[in-house]
């Protein structure tokens, strides 16, 4: 399987362990990633609050670049995924805007490729049986809660991904790794996203609530697919549980190189938990 790959700004900076683990897992699952040529920032967290046309033109430019390769584009970052899907939605339903954006970008939008999240690709195209067959070390004793956050699933008519009220794909993937996902009701709650710097006290409150609810669900860690959520949960919660990208745990279960290096980048050290479970 071959897809265009849009890492976005976060995966080349604070979320580099997501980028590296995504590439490692993709290689193990025979997913070829072709990075989008000359991609640009999608404008997440800022463009849509300052300039509507810019917020559409930025992701549109990268989608158009992916269209030239005729490959669906994998967008791991939840914020980038949301902006890409939002741009597609507007371009499909507003001909005048589409013409303006094409003039800004200097190219034609064909609406010929799908924007997809790696959770969907791994669950739907690769499948749980293939994942299970790749596992060399079951994540026995790991009791995660899957945390999607708010940007991957909403608005549902735009994101068109997963059950926005009761998502299940990440739980299924984690179970295939031998983990024991816990049920909870906060998997799509907001962590505060872009408020982390300007309204830190709100983010601390939201993240502490998520940690409290995770503990009440008998979880010993949280798993996410969003660099913004990862940064907030790993940095802002005052009594935080370990937080992982789902791809880090996939790489660990598959016996791939990298997890020890990635875990050292986390603010909440996950090694004591892993060592207590015999996973390190």
Task: Tell me about this structure.
- The protein is α/β, with parallel strands linked by helices.
- It has two domains: 2-116, Up-down Bundle (Glutathione S-transferase Yfyf (Class Pi), Chain A, domain 2), CATH 1.20.1050; 128-276, Rossmann fold, CATH 3.40.50.11810.
- It is built from 15 helices and seven strands.
- The strands form two sheets. It has a four-stranded parallel sheet with strand order 2-1-3-4, with helices on both faces. It has a three-stranded parallel sheet with strand order 5-6-7, sandwiched between helices.
- Helix 12 (227-236) links the parallel strand 6 and strand 7.
- The protein is globular.
- The two termini are 31 Å apart.
- The model has no long low-confidence stretch (mean pLDDT 95).
- Low-pLDDT residue intervals, each spanning 5 or more residues: none
Round the Cα radius of gyration to an integer and report it: 18 Å
Q: Which structural class do you get from the secondary structure elements?
A: alpha/beta
Distance linking N and C termini = 31 Å
Strand order of the largest sheet: 2-1-3-4
The CATH architecture of the largest domain comes to: 3-Layer(aba) Sandwich
The largest β sheet comes out as:
4 strands, parallel
Specify the overall morphology: globular
| Number of contiguous helices | 15
Topology, number of strands: 7
CATH class call of the largest domain: Alpha Beta
On the 0 to 100 scale, the average pLDDT is 95
As a percent range, the share of helical residues equals 40-55%
What is the CATH topology of the largest domain?
Answer: Rossmann fold
Overall structural domain count: 2
Order of helices and strands: EHHEHHEHHEHHEHHHEHEHHH
Strand content: 5-15%
């Amino acid at each position: 399987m071959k897809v265009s790959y849009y890492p976005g700004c976060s995966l080349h900076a604070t979320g580099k362990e997501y980028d590296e683990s995504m590439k490692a897992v993709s290689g193990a699952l025979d997913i070829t990633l072709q990075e989008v040529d000359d991609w640009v920032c999608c404008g997440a967290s800022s463009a849509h609050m300052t300039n509507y046309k810019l917020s559409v033109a930025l992701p549109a430019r990268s989608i158009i670049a992916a269209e030239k390769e005729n490959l669906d584009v994998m967008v791991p970052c939840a914020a980038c995924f949301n902006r890409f899907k939002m741009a597609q939605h507007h371009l499909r339903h507003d001909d005048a805007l589409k013409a303006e954006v094409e003039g800004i970008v200097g190219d034609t939008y064909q609406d010929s490729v799908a924007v997809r999240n790696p959770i969907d690709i791994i669950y739907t195209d690769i499948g749980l049986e293939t994942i299970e067959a790749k596992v060399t070390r079951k994540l026995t004793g790991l009791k995660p809660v899957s945390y999607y956050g708010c940007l991957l699933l909403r608005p549902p008519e735009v994101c068109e991904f997963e059950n926005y009220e009761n998502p299940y794909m990440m739980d299924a993937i984690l179970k295939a790794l031998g983990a024991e996902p816990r049920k909870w009701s906060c998997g799509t709650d907001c962590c505060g996203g872009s408020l982390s710097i300007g309204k830190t006290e709100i983010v601390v409150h939201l993240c502490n609530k998520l940690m409290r609810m995770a503990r009440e669900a008998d979880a010993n860690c949280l798993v996410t697919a969003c660099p913004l959520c990862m940064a907030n949960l790993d940095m802002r919660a005052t009594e935080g549980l370990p937080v992982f990208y789902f791809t880090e745990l996939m790489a660990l279960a598959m016996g791939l190189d990298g997890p020890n290096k990635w875990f050292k980048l986390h603010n909440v050290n996950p090694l004591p938990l892993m060592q207590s479970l015999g996973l390190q």
